[in-house]
Input
Amino acid sequence: MTKVSPISVAFGKAVKQARLKKAWTQDDLANESGLDRSYISQIEGGLRNPSLPVVWDLAVKLDTSFLTLMAAAVQLMPEASSESNKPSE
Output
């Protein structure tokens, strides 16, 4: 079973929040971004790790900035004090 990264889950939640703020469905975001709806679903579920250009494009389509989207993801992260959330070396 694949381990899901906390930052991937947090980023997915941030994308979903931004999408819902625009009152868009996953299909709407997929159509606007040129990505498949199932890929959007996997991102929102924390199952996929999109590349930086994809993150940038999602931010633009969601009428936000790359930094704002990433900051929202950081705010949604579980407690930073948890050992499991520290980056591996």
